[in-house]
Amino acid sequence: MGKYVIHGGHELHGEVSVSGFKNAALAVITSAILVEGTCVIGNIPKISDVTVHLEILKRMGASVRLIDDTTVEINCSKLRGPRAIFDDLTRKTRASTYLMGAVLGRFGSAHVSLSGGCDLGSRPIDQHIKGFEALGCNVEIKNGAIHITAQDGLHPARIYFDQRTVGGTINVMLAAVRIPGQTVIENANKEPHIVDVANFLNAMGANITGAGTDVIKVRGVRRLHGGIYSIIPDQIEAGTFMAAVAATGGEIVIHNIIPKHLECISTKFEEMGVEIVDLDDSILVRRTGPLRRTNVKTMPYPGFPTDMNSQTAVLMCLAQGTSIMTESIFQDRFRYVDELRRMGAHAQVDGQIAVFEGVENLTGAPVRACDLRAGAALIIAGLAAQGVTEISCIEYIERGYDNLVAKFNGLGAGITLVEDEAEAEILANA
Ligand code: EPZ
After folding, report:
1. Which domain range does residue 310 map to?
2. Distance from the CA of 321 to the CA of which of 107, 129, 136, 253 falls in 20 to 30 A?
3. 157/244 same-domain check
């Protein structure tokens, strides 16, 4: 995979449209396993993680047909049973954990490879397992796969999560959707994509209420029929563009958003001196004056999203004064700070807290993406920095953002994707 070469120091201006939400699309596509009929799913982002999940369904025996760039038709009526041992694919995403709940909900048992995804520290699935066991399952992990069986069949349950978990909430919802009776999930997460999955399943005939609150009730139905559904816009992609124009200065309009999903981000950025104007399903974002310091603590939705930690840290590096970022979700979210220091950031990390002392400007440097959102943050830092930044390990970025370089360049960025060292050298010195 090549690298991005960025000539920084230019403001962003223009309009950009956000794609469908990666984390919603991956969960909804996997949920199609539960449907014995044809699902047509629209607003799918064009990212490699989606390709991986569609390939998993195909290997399981589903028919998958791309109707256009962002719409896919899936029919899982003829799935070949509860095995999905595809290490080469499931290790590529975290969302492949949803195979557990979807296959269990469809077949009453599941034998699936364990997932992979961004290295953000330990990502246990003990709460997922707690949910499956409450539904009557026996769970065993061996040979890199999880084996979920229910010798007496699945039964409804009331599950109270000890720890807020997006994946656990979705997985128990999927497992319970066809269990006769009512399953109640308490201390559930409320992220927009959890609501999106519930809305998709209900559009296919499920009976789920309370998604978006901390109590979700799933009344089992006999089967799910086909239907049509469209994925919500990606609020993290929108937030990434908001952070970019806040870092470089300028004015952009971001289309295809749901303002409610961005409130936690917009409020914080306005505190930092960014002007945001709601335009119904678009927003105008402008930064002309200096950035002001702030403090952020990442929390489950509707708190400030952990997936905006690294992008917001770039603004803290450029703000007047000292800002504090507290990460309450992932152990190793701050690995990107070393890369920002290479660009002149003044930052200290102590466990789950990072302190950023604002500097006049960042300077371009060769840096390395260590996860999806860290990669996005390095693009933002490169756009704002004086000089040239080269970003390697861009596969992280390419797997989770749809056409990000073209979208940024449509706003006046100077990003070039280069495949080899010699070309990168020439561009860096251009
Ligand atoms: C989802 O990850 C997202 N991934 C992440 O987005 C996002 O950062 C995260 O939710 C939080 O919003 C997808 O949707 C594919 P969790 P997930 O289960 O489901 C601990 C991105 O960049 N935990 O809410 O894995 C866990 O260790 C990615 O798009 C347990 O202890 O998140 C973590 O510290 C990165 N036991 C915390 O909870 C469990 O059983 C949050 O995990 C489950 C989780």
Report:
1. 3-19+233-428
2. 253
3. no
